[in-house]
Design goal:
Blueprint (H helix, E strand, L loop, with lengths): L7 E8 L2 H11 L3 E8 L2 E10 L8 E6 L12 E10 L3 H10 L8 E3 L2 E7 L5 E7 L20 E9 L3 H10 L2 E4 L3 E4 L7 E6 L12 E9 L4 H10 L8 E2 L4 E6 L5 E6 L21 H4 L2 H7 L11
Parallel strand pairs: 1-4, 5-8, 9-12, 13-16
Antiparallel strand pairs: 1-13, 2-3, 3-4, 5-9, 6-7, 7-8, 10-11, 11-12, 14-15, 15-16
The structure holds zinc ion.
The site of zinc ion (ZN) has 5 residues, from strand 1 and strand 13.
């Protein structure tokens, strides 16, 4: 058996206006733009990666922003909520920060003893802040949020499923343990992105892809284990892709029986493989197999401007 998975590597979602997306994640949430690239399957669309200072696995929320994208519908067969981890003492700071920025947020609530702040991004993507005493100090981005309150990375994701079981048994194989039953909760021993919740609702509407919905969730694996994970997925009756070189990691994708697209992404080489850590995200970076098309790709991309210039 391959080594247990410590947690989520990244979460990728669909957005509308790229500038508005950049503004929200860097200025309001204080994450760092750690990679400015293009969707390798559709180079007319940006792929923007936000994370901690060095883009540590377990911190990167990534987007395919399509200007004028049709809104999707959050529903079954999707990651329905993505949760970020904040320190326990930072709840009041964030409630005030989100209110000051006019973010669509709900009152904090308790879940399994943790304070949870639900909110939506400008495209309506459901997000949460989960406050925990054991949030790691991490590698906070330089930005508008003080280090002590900075988002540390992912806490976890919630999967909305018509039927929990096939996906639940895959999570167990991946190294997650079931720790709560009413909202089913699965946890691993990692520091970031170590929780997957499952909400089972056979009556809920099916999710539809579009702006404000998650495209896939990626879990962290080692390069040595990658092909074994592929075999595990096949053994679970899924049809994994070949190992795909994504430049900053290598990936295997499989659509789970519950409909959610899972990716297994290697922790290395990481976002610093082609840029100095102090210069991450400043320029459009292309994998070498797209570099000879740079002029054409740059000409086809929409303008990427946040309200203020990006630091
Ligand atoms: Zn991915």
């Amino acid at each position: 058996m391959p080594t247990d998975i410590p947690g989520i590597h990244h979460v990728t979602a669909i957005a509308g206006d790229p500038g508005r997306n950049l503004d929200f994640y860097t200025r309001t949430l204080g994450l760092r733009l750690v990679k400015r690239s293009v969707n390798q399957d559709d180079v007319s669309v940006y792929h923007l990666f936000y994370g901690d200072y060095s883009g540590t696995p377990g911190t990167s929320m990534t987007f395919f922003p399509y200007p004028g994208a049709r809104p999707g519908r959050v529903g079954t067969g999707q990651v329905s909520t993505t949760a970020f981890l904040i320190p326990e003492e930072s709840v009041d700071y964030w409630v005030e920060r989100l209110a000051d920025a006019g973010v669509d947020a709900d009152d904090p609530r308790e879940r399994f003893g943790d304070t949870v702040v639900p909110f939506r991004d400008p495209d309506g993507l459901p997000l949460e802040l989960v406050a925990r005493a054991d949030a790691p100090a991490g590698d906070p981005p330089e930005g508008p949020v003080p280090d002590e309150h900075a988002i540390r990375g992912f806490f976890g994701v919630t999967l909305s499923l018509e039927s929990a079981e096939p996906t639940a048994s895959l999570l167990i194989t991946m190294g997650f343990r079931e720790t709560e039953r009413d909202r089913r909760r699965y946890e691993t021993d990692g520091e970031l992105g170590y929780v997957v919740d499952i909400l089972e609702d056979p009556q809920a509407p099916r999710g539809q892809p579009g702006a404000g919905t998650v495209h896939h969730v990626a879990f962290q694996v080692t390069e040595d284990d990658q092909s074994e994970w592929r075999d595990v997925l096949t053994d679970h009756g899924l049809r994994p892709t070949e190992i795909i070189d994504r430049k900053w990691f290598e990936s295997v994708y499989a659509r789970t029986k519950g409909g959610v697209l899972f990716e297994f992404a290697t922790k290395s080489p990481g976002y610093t493989v082609d840029e100095d850590v102090d210069e991450l995200g400043e320029r459009l970076v292309l994998p070498e197999w797209l570099e000879d098309r740079r002029d054409e790709i740059e000409a086809g991309l929409p303008e990427l401007s946040s309200e203020q210039s990006v630091e």
